[in-house]
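Moderator note: this is an archived Q&A kept for reference. The question asked for a predicted structure of one protein chain; the sequence and the answer are reproduced below.
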Amino acid sequence: MLAVNVRAIEALLDGAREVGARVVNAGSSSEYGQQDHAPSESERVEPNSLYAITKVAATQLCRLAAATYGQCAITLRFYSIYGPWEEPGRLMPTLVQRALTGHLPPLVDPDIARDFVWVQDACEAFLAAAGADLQDPGAVLNVASGTQTTLRTLVDLARGMFKIEAEPAWGTMPQRSWVTAIR
């Protein structure tokens, strides 16, 4: 994570500065840590994992490049991206794969909530940021749907779509440290 999320962004910023290119950094909602609300871009970050810390470091490198050199280095803080070519072990592909066989995967707390962003919307955000004329060359922008969806809602939807009769086995998967729930 340090090599990719910190050192690579540092090298990318250096190279982009040499040729006058814009950088659009892929940040993460994890930079905010656990929150019970949708944080604004100006809120304090409170990373609660090594991954989140490295993403904050990359964001700060971009902000430093913008402040020091006037370099355009925008950070997009993405929420839970899903869609084609997603890592197979993640929630959406696992849920669909198991649902296709009439089953549900092991599940955590049903009140765990995510703001899901379709991968095509994430791609469009990158393109928009690459061409945007922003007053702050080190801007940080959240990329989210604005809707929190609980695991319960998502599983209910999958059960209906795939006609799964089995009841969800809540709490059969260990909860991760970075999860957020609707309060």
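Archived answer notes: The chain has a mean pLDDT of 93.
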